[in-house]
Amino acid sequence: MVCEIARGLAETQLDEIQRLERETGLTVVAFACRTLDPAREERLQAIQAELGPLLSVPPASPDDGQLSRIRELEEGLGLSLVAVSAA
After folding, report:
1. Quick one: pLDDT at residue 86?
2. Contact 56, 82 (CB under 8 A)
3. Residue 74: which residues within 8 A CB-CB, separation 6 or more?
4. What phi, psi does 27 have (nearest 5°)?
5. Could you report the per-residue pLDDT of 16-70, keeping only the tens digit for each?
6. Pairing with 78, which of 3, 11, 38, 71 sits 20 to 30 Å away (CA)?
């Protein structure tokens, strides 16, 4: 499976993600994921390794209520949403 930052979101999708951020006080990154056949996934991993170090951001620690809202919106949008620490 490969995931990338979701691009080309509809305005309504973006509005819903921003509303979630306001309601929960979390910063959320949206990812679009898809499955690749194993050979393509191996090639992609090799290419990524050549690109150098990955940028990383620590995950946030949402409480149960926040996590429930994230999961609900994930299902509605068909995206993977990750809460991250913005600081």
Report:
1. 78
2. no
3. 80, 81
4. -95, 130
5. 999 999 999 999 999 998 777 777 878 877 887 787 667 688 999 999 999 999 9
6. 38
Coil vs helix vs strand at 19: helix
**Residues near 79 by beta carbon (within 8 Å), at least 6 away in sequence:** 6, 13, 30, 31, 32
Cα distance between residue 11 and residue 1, in whole Å? 26
Domain that holds residue 10: 2-84
Strand partners, 30: 81
Dist. CA 8–CA 72, nearest whole Å:
21
Quote the CA–CA distance of 12 and 65 in Å, as a whole number: 23
Would you state the structure tokens that stand for residue 32, as one six-digit string?
């679009």
**Total of domains in the chain:** 1
Q: Can you read off the two tokens belonging to residue 40?
A: 């393509």
